[in-house]
Amino acid sequence: MNYINKVMLVGRCGQDPELKYFESGAVKASISLAVRPPYRSEQALWFDLVAWGHIAEVINNYVRKGTQIAITGEFGFDRWADKNSGTMRQKPVITINALELLGSPRKEESTSTSAPNEQAFANANF
Predict the structure, then answer these.
(1) Facing residues of 50 across strands?
(2) Which H helix or E strand runs over 80?
(3) pLDDT tens for residues 113-125?
(4) In whole angstroms, what is the distance from residue 110 CA to residue 88 CA?
(5) Per-residue exposure over 82-114, b if at least 16 CB sit within 10 Å of its own CB, e if not
(6) Which of helix, strand or coil describes residue 109?
(7) Which of 11, 51, 74, 89 has its CB 3.0 to 4.6 Å from that of 35, i.e. a possible disulfide?
């Protein structure tokens, strides 16, 4: 049986990325993304995103709070046992398969480091 699990989002990062290296050599980046509905009266929707490998490295090097990005990815859940009660918990998370940098952070949040200020950067098909 075939299925489709594809998410496409364009928004601004809500935080600087968190990068984690594992003993296996794998690297993981975690960020949040705010997607603003077309009507300003509506609140932004927030999504938790994770990226692995090359895309995680690109996010760490070029994405900061306020950076506008476009992603495609897969919807899933992070699952863990609560430390106190042992109850299983879960939260929705999107795993990034492709990333496009749409611009630098907003002017008031940008830094003096040079970063690409325009299009296309990472693709999971490397």
Answers:
(1) 30, 95
(2) strand 68-81
(3) 444 433 444 444 4
(4) 39
(5) eeeeeeeeeeebbbbbbbbbbbbbeeeebeeee
(6) helix
(7) 11
State pLDDT tens for residues 70-87. Answer: 999 999 999 989 889 989
- What CATH number should be reported for the domain holding residue 32? 2.40.50.140
**CA–CA distance, 8 with 80 (Å, rounded to integer):** 26
Host domain of residue 61: 7-123
- Full-model pTM: 0.75
> Residue written as tokens 């299925």?
3
In angstroms, the CA 46 to CA 13 distance is: 9
The C-alpha R_g of the chain, in whole angstroms, comes to: 16
Find out whether 102 and 63 touch, Cβ atoms under 8 Å.
Answer: no
Residue 28 CB coordination number (10 Å): 17
Tell me if 1 is assigned to some domain: no
Look at the chain and count its residues: 126
